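Possible regression after last week's pipeline update?

I re-ran a chain I had predicted before the update to compare outputs. Posting the input and the new output here so someone can diff against the archived version. Not blocking, just want to make sure nothing changed silently.
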Amino acid sequence: MRRLFALALCCGLLGGCAGPGSPDGIWINQPLIEAAREGGPLREALLAYGPNLEWQIDSQRGLATYSNGFELGEGQLTAQQPGQWRVDYHGDVHEQLSLRDDELVQQANSNGPEQRFSKPQQPAAADAPPGSSFEAALYDAYLGGTWKIREGLGQGGLVLFHADGRIEGLPGAERYALCLAGDCASMSGEHDSLWLQLGQQGRSWIFQRDGEQLRILEALNRAQLDEMPELHPGRQAWLLERD
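New output (post-update):
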């Protein structure tokens, strides 16, 4: 009886509970995360399974927002036949979304391939920026666990990369961010890069992931002062190995 009352209250006061076949909520690019979990270059996983990293769907407001790690796109969501929706943006740009089993599918079109998204096990807080749920899941899959400093400052110490962007044990750093798209990706080209920060000071580094080893190298800028930076690997600063 109490469960029936709670259900009625939810549907009556909140304007309707999401039922079977509802697209509402946060969806993350799980195939990309699983590819990154294998321990290879992050850039390869992004190219193979991107560009979109996360969707946030609100059918009651008719809104659908995607994040690609650099920009947000908000469109008008319109239901079509059961299990299918259309997202319209400014101009004549649109996407087709559908539900297949437990996945949200962004259908292939002239702008990109088919992409599949799943509900995150631990969604970000309601006030977190769009893309936060994907980022946390990626950070945990790609860098989670305990790493030992095999070479470099702090040799022998342990390093922990937290899913919220905190880092412990790496000398001179308390925050980190993996480069997923945008200017940082353009500057580093074919190389993976990350941002390390201590207090208000931070800088870009090149990293190379090979299985259970992670090399962090200085990022050397070969561009002229009036050009966009072109970052290339410099000397190795740290070699980390995951226990």
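Follow-up from reviewer: compared with the archived run. Residues 144-242 form one domain. Marking as no regression found.
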